[in-house]
Amino acid sequence: MALDMTPRIDVLGTGNAFLPNGRHHSFSVFDGKHIIDAPPTALASLRRAGIPVSDIESVFITHIHGDHVFGFPFLLLERKYISDREGALPLRVMGSPSVKVRLTELCHLAFPGSLESILETVEWVEDAVGTTDDGWSWERFEVNHDDAVDPYGYRFENADGVTFVHSGDSGPCDTLYDAIERSNIAILEMGFPDWVPSTHHHKPKDIEALAQRCSTPLIITHTFVDDATNHPKVLSDSIPEHPPHVSHISDGTRLNWENGEWVIFRLEDV
Description:
7 helices; alpha/beta
């Protein structure tokens, strides 16, 4: 079934786990109803964007680190007691086999005795490929991170052939780069500066190397760089120099599909 609206991606949070100034945790919503991960600041990000929690139909989990899933109990709590009190609206959670176990444990820990009834209504989808009710197909693929957190990226494609990739948290790896090269745009994490000894995240030098390898537009999220504020810097407040097809965005950035390409806006300008 074809989409009945212009495809859009709202990047509501762009910070890494350490919450650089001016940024919520990395968090994206596409077409106003499908979210990628559920970070601790997910509810605040949805509120700030004016998106009702009850509108969310799908949750795609990339991995089970706290900065990507610890907001999940709050989303369920809000739906149960505020925006979907009748429990009439469906919610599907896509992820690896460990996702149901870990998120259920998290909900019991966060709000013991409060979320059992709504957890019973969640549809848990472990398939690596599938399709949303409004026509987006997805494929889940392994990426380069700590195996203990079941790290994956997602590639999405709609019935009209519009595509995008979300990397989750991943260092450089061929599975991710192959998906990016087959897509119209990629939302890509850049969690640490070059001097941090980690291979599980992209650094500025890795973004540079990927940009030389492929022409797919790259949207930087999960960044370590502060956005513009009056506060003392957390780690860095300087955007690295990027090639022209790399965009280091802020919270509240919208990607609209227009005339055969993804176009970048600020939500406040749309």
